[in-house]
Design brief:
Layout lengths: L20 E6 L6 E17 L6 E2 L12 E8 L8 H11 L4 E2 L4 E2 L4 E3 L14 H9 L18 E2 L9 E2 L1 E9 L2 E9 L4 E3 L6 E3 L12 H6 L14 E7 L5 H18 E2 L9 E6 L9 H21 L4 E2 L4 E2 L3 H5 L8
Parallel strand pairs: 4-7, 14-16
Antiparallel strand pairs: 1-2, 2-4, 2-16, 3-7, 5-6, 8-9, 10-11, 11-14, 12-13, 12-15, 17-18
Length: 343
């Protein structure tokens, strides 16, 4: 297979899952933003955190032994820990629309969240806030999604083993599959320290570039060759996302789907789950298909759509240039426009 080919995006979106809506808000002042996965009727939820430097909210609540069964939204945001503020805006929008956990003293929307670190892309003082989360909800609809440089993927980069100057553009991607009347979809924000790899070919699609910036340099091969890496700080990377299905799930089964979704990350990102990433996946079950959970099938689909969504994230991405920085995208390989980062 030609490593410089530019295959079409994998088909489908997480919004193919009945009961799921997605909205993005992209900050106009610098590349950052947030993406919200809405489940207005509620969805059984699980989570699995594999990265060593996560930035999350409400993940303890999703453990199978804990009380709350259903969530109403999941927020994915840029801005590092600052971006968790956007969840407050999601809660406000849900409350205004009569969505939340009835407590006898008003509604309390349940909104787990995870963030990526994108503060090195532009002015770090600009990050998603509560208004950004609110606007992402207002933009949500059940329609084909915009992918790439939008929402939480606006400032995402991949292939940072040798620093930002040799990285490439990451982004947000989605994919879905329907088998035997059950649909599984994923929405992934890819901001990995590692490379994105096409499992079908074994080829690196986007990631670390050579010292002159003109070609890809496989991060795994570079490490095995003993090439010295740039000093890396924990949490400055991270891939986060949501897997959703219309099958009927228990909380334990939702947690299991989140766990096996990481198999999809391991197929499509190398290295993955490092000390410098906060890799976190949520899983949602809307139950709208009326079908019970065939966990072998669902687990297979969850890993597959996760890997496909990672690939879509970088294939849909576009090159990003700031005043003194340039990050090419996977699409630039096919056009021959892959260039060295500007000093």
């Amino acid at each position: 297979m030609n490593p410089h080919a530019s295959p079409a995006l994998h088909p489908g979106h997480i919004t193919d899952v009945a009961g799921i809506e997605v909205g993005h808000h992209t900050e106009s002042r610098r590349p950052t933003g947030c993406s919200v996965v809405l489940a207005p009727e509620g969805a059984v939820a699980g989570v699995d955190v594999r990265g060593a430097a996560p930035g999350t909210r409400e993940t303890d609540l999703l453990q199978p032994a804990n009380l709350v069964e259903r969530v109403h939204a999941v927020l994915l945001s840029g801005g590092s820990a600052w971006g968790l503020d956007a969840a407050g805006g999601v809660m406000r929008w849900l409350e205004e629309n009569g969505i939340g956990l009835a407590t006898g003293h008003g509604l309390v929307p349940i909104v787990p969240a995870a963030v990526i670190f994108d503060l090195g892309v532009g002015d770090a003082r600009i990050r998603p806030d509560a208004q950004a989360g609110y606007l992402a909800c207002r933009h949500a609809a059940e329609r084909p999604l915009t992918q790439g440089n939008v929402g939480a993927g606006a400032g995402a980069l991949v292939g940072k083993l040798h620093g930002m100057a040799r990285a490439m553009k990451g982004g947000v991607g989605s994919a879905s599959l329907c088998v035997q009347g059950v649909t599984v979809g994923a929405l992934i924000v890819c901001n990995a320290v590692g490379d994105v790899v096409d499992p079908a070919s074994g080829q690196v699609v986007a990631g670390l570039r050579t010292a002159d910036g003109a070609a890809l340099r496989c991060s795994r091969d570079a490490m095995l060759a003993g090439e010295l890496t740039q000093p890396l700080l924990p949490g400055q990377h991270t891939t986060i996302g949501v897997i959703a299905t219309d099958a009927q799930l228990s909380k334990a089964q939702a947690q299991r789907l989140a766990q096996v979704g990481h198999d999809g990350l391991a197929r499509s990102i190398n290295p993955v789950h490092t000390m410098y990433d906060g890799d976190t996946l949520f899983a949602l079950g809307t139950g709208r298909s009326g079908r019970g959970a065939d966990m072998l099938l669902l687990a297979t689909l969850a890993a597959e759509v996760t890997a496909r969504a990672v690939l879509n994230a970088v294939r849909a991405a576009q090159a990003l240039s700031l005043a003194d920085q340039h990050w090419p995208a996977a699409a630039d390989l096919a056009s021959g426009a892959l260039q060295r980062a500007r000093p």
